[in-house]
Design a protein that fits this description.
Length: 247
């Protein structure tokens, strides 16, 4: 009962955090490891749990996405599918001991990205537009990271878009959610085919994360975003320390 409670609360709060500021994976992944799932299946199950929330986020910016160049959009979505599958396959072939070793560093990397996202996006705004090859290579690298480890994906994508010359924040957020949904869908299918997802846990976590997302959308209008961001950063750093101690 305690394990069910821990995972349920983590999924609900992850939905809330993702709706307000992001960082839900900082809760779902550690919670699944805490209740006994091996790190790699826990990462896969966590990806399934937070997967549906990206779709609603993309729908919220549907008009901006539809106004974007259709050919460029298809290229981005295609690279997202490829990156999601590549990242998932990379996770599947990573030895459990190696993944357990790098998890705290991935958590720390994602937490620092989250903490300094404004500075990163401000810095990338001064970068020149990349050539098509560089643009596609950077997009593939970021989406592969997202397929391998979902934490901090939104911040990495926003930084990528800024570096590529995007300036419309609504379009950037819309594309961020759309690419997150597509690449997560590709990685989730790969994880399901590989049979490493704990389906029972994933199913009720998806429901609770969706409910949490609705609650978070309402709370976003009342709670200061800085408070929520501070909580995400605190949780991320805390989980980094815990996983460093475990490894």
């Amino acid at each position: 009962m305690l394990e069910i409670t821990i995972v349920s609360v983590a999924a609900f709060l992850a939905g809330v955090l993702n709706s307000i500021a992001g960082g839900g994976s900082f809760l779902t992944f550690p919670a699944l490891v805490f209740v006994g799932l091996p790190p790699i299946p826990a990462n896969a199950t966590s990806a399934v749990a937070v997967f549906p929330g990206y779709l609603s986020g993309a729908v919220g910016f549907l008009s901006e996405i539809q106004a974007y160049d259709r050919r460029a959009l298809f290229v981005l979505l295609g690279l997202s599918v490829l990156g999601g599958v590549l990242g998932a396959v990379l996770l599947l072939i990573t030895p459990s001991e190696v993944f357990s070793f790098i998890v705290p560093w991935l958590l720390l990397f994602a937490t620092l990205l989250f903490a300094f996202d404004k500075q990163i996006r401000s810095w990338t705004k001064g970068e020149r537009k990349a050539n098509p090859f560089g643009r596609n290579a950077a997009t593939l690298a970021v989406t592969t990271y997202g397929g391998y480890f979902n934490g901090g994906l939104g911040i990495v994508l926003l930084a990528l878009f800024s570096g590529l010359g995007f300036r419309d924040i609504n379009l950037m957020n819309g594309l961020k959610n759309a690419l997150s949904f597509i690449l997560s869908g590709a990685s989730v299918v790969t994880f399901l085919l590989a049979g490493i997802v704990y389906l029972k846990e994933a199913a009720f976590m998806m429901i609770l994360a969706t409910i949490g997302g609705y609650v978070g959308a309402r709370l976003a209008k009342k709670l200061p975003v800085n408070v929520i961001r501070s909580i995400v950063i605190f949780v991320g750093l805390g989980m980094t320390v815990v996983f460093l101690a475990r490894s």
